[in-house]
Amino acid sequence: MMCEKMFENTFLEEILNITLLSLKVSGTAVLIGAIIGIPIGTALGFGWFKGKMMLTRIIDLTLKSIVNTFMGLPPVVVGLVVYLLLTTSGPLGPLGLLYTPTAMIITQLIMAVPIVTGVTMSAIGSVEKTVRERALSLGATDRQAAWTVLREARTGILTAVIVAFGAAISEVGGIMIAGGNIRWVTRTLTTAIVVETNLGNFDLAITLGIILLSIAFIINLALTIIQFRGQKR
To answer: pLDDT tens-digit profile of 67-82?
Structure first.
């Protein structure tokens, strides 16, 4: 009886540890990604890199193409790159970050930044022309017109963050390569599901799957509510 109780406590502790680590890694990566990606996406959406010169137009198109390309980066490739950078023979090897949560955050950050940037860029680009022209025609300054565009695009910007978080927390290949999937240290919901399924521990795998689906549902529900409120205003 006592052994069963200890096993149950350990089971619950491991599930809690895995869930909290997943939220910590993905949340940190997306937060940093938002800090980096939103300003870049805003600049690209407003076309601040555009100009009359052919060179500036080429730079603008090149930057947008790079963002769109990186939005589809294969996670395993990102994980491999991070692994090669952080391995003992790599340029960042002396930092000792391989197989740590930090390595997993770096991996998800590389994937989150293009998503946040691309969706923000699209959100602002979709409202920038008409809203900006209307604001300027009513006597607003360039700064006031830009702020008006940002307010109109706020739902899209929030969507960018939520989409990036959803992609990050459901990612498995990249963080498994960079984090090593070490029990109690770098095991997340997705990597644990893979391992426990291979080991035949279906009870734990199903439990973790339900938790992951619940988080995904909450994310989608939040996105739907945000979009609905944005449409009403």
So the answer is: 888 888 899 999 999 9
In terms of residues, how long is the chain?
233
Which residue in this structure is represented by tokens 């990102």?
78
Distance CA 112, CA 106 (A): 10
**Residue 162: which CATH number?**
1.10.3720.10
Contact between residue 124 and residue 153 where contact means Cβ atoms under 8 Å apart:
yes
Q: How far apart are CA 209 and CA 174, in angstroms?
A: 19
Q: Is 214 within 8 Å of 24 (Cβ atoms)?
A: no
The label of the residue with tokens 């090149």 reads 62
34 burial level (CB within 10 Å; 0-12, 13-18, 19+): buried
> Considering its fold, how many domains does the chain have in total?
1
- Count other C-beta atoms under 10 Å from residue 38's C-beta: 21
pTM, entire model: 0.86
19 located within any domain: yes
Q: If we measure between CA atoms, which residue out of 199, 178, 8, 167 comes closest to residue 105?
A: 178
